[in-house]
Amino acid sequence: MSTPTLKRTPLFDAHVAAGAKLVAFTGWEMPVQYTEGIRAEHEAVRDRAGVFDVSHMGEVQCSGPDAEAFLQHVLSNDVARMAIGGAQYSMLCNHDGGLLDDLFTYRLAADRFLTVTNAANHDSDVAWMREQAAGHDVQVEDVAGAYAMLAVQGPRAREIVEQIADSPLPARMQAARRIILGREALVCGTGYTGEDGVELLLAPADAPAVWEELLRRGVVPCGLAARDTLRLEVCYPLYGNDLSPDRNPIEADLGWACKEDTAFIGSEAVRRAREEGTAEKLVAFKMTGPGIARQGNPVAGGGEVTSGTMSPSLGIGIGMAYVPAERATVGQDLEIDVRGKLRSAVVAAKPLYTKETDG
Amino acid sequence: MAEASYPDELLYHPEHDWARIDDGVATLGITWFAQDALGEVVFFDPPEVGSSVSAGEAYAEVESVKAVSDVVAPLSGEIVEVNTALADAPEAINEDPYGDGWMVRVKLADPAEADALMDRDAYMGTL
What we know:
The structure holds two protein chains of two kinds.
Chain A: H1 12-17, E1 21-25, E2 28-33, H2 38-47, E3 50-53, E4 58-63, H3 67-74, E5 87-93, E6 99-109, E7 112-117, H4 122-132, E8 139-142, E9 148-153, H5 157-163, E10 175-180, E11 183-188, E12 197-202, H6 207-216, E13 220-222, H7 224-233, H8 267-276, E14 280-287, E15 304-310, E16 317-324, E17 333-338, E18 341-348, H9 355-358
Parallel strand pairs in A: 3-13
Antiparallel strand pairs in A: 1-2, 3-9, 4-7, 4-8, 5-6, 6-7, 9-12, 10-11, 11-12, 14-16, 14-18, 15-16, 17-18
Chain B: E1 11-13, E2 17-22, E3 25-30, H1 32-38, E4 41-45, E5 52-53, E6 58-64, E7 68-72, E8 77-82, H2 92-95, E9 104-108, H3 120-126
Antiparallel strand pairs in B: 1-2, 2-3, 3-9, 4-6, 5-8, 6-7, 8-9
């Protein structure tokens, strides 16, 4: 059996130096955690500031006179409503409304957009978008190699990045060019942790210096494991776990990011699902007794856990699962088959963790 | 988590379990190496008192934030006690794997099985 060659981000040496445990993740050799452990990293992001290397994620640039019309055609949200310097979350759907990816898009100019893809879907997203571009005056460029990406997250993240920026950072859901530590960066007020913070898109060669400077200023390096516990506490879906081509945005509870009137690819199926309802719905749950449900555990009475972990902030097992629509109501008791033992859980409101009540 | 340690008075199984035998009863747990590989333990699912365990087979589950693992019995016998304190403080498995982090006590079915286990130096040679 041959071992596939794993790709490395420009920060690979920095991860090794910081004592990271490295794992294979969608073809990349990525840090899953550093020396202090998942809980310490998780708490650093909830209480102070942490930084994630998310350079494995891909980028696609769409430019040209039809760029807006083209993205309106392939993305589920209303792209025309995005101002220059704005950010928007949307789905990429197939013709049946099945989920191909979930994406953030930034409008860099009237006729130029940058879309961030999930690493595992990047190549197929680019191929799909190019296929749909026929008849549009748009250039669809795979620019994944042009960027490293750092997510700096936590209540102090913005203030620390601002100390090394040439001017104040863009607000939440805004993106702008800034000089960070003397280097060109696209700074985006987005993230995947439920905390305030920014994501920095940098030239690969510039990323290590910025990473080192953030660590020097007390930002804690955080791995994929903490990224997963943080996102799950605030119920952000993870493509490959909670989202797949077999699910549409309505059953995934992402109808808010779909504007069927824009007639995007898959919009008819999404409209039908919204009007008629779906057999199953993606819900959040909390364990009410011992045990921690994990991805793939069946739910008694139908459905399946798509993400599950121990919540460091709440101190209980949490997760998300597709369950029959009639049982997808907050307060519904569930029994989950955790490796042959039925464990008790309850459907809970999203997000599972909020600053106001728990912070 | 403290520094790596492997007490001299224990017997070791290649699946990173230890046994402390006293008058036909063995106290079992996982080694420093095992708890370090797991990361922060958040849940210990014990067997029932009175159930039997077989050497080389799983008798319990230990769960960290990111994964669940089976705990393998180094010796065969009947469970006579489980460490109920781990229900509320599973982190003891990380903090004190040979002390407060013990998992079960087993009345040995065949004390001669202990001859197949490794001493400290032999186990450390496998790491």
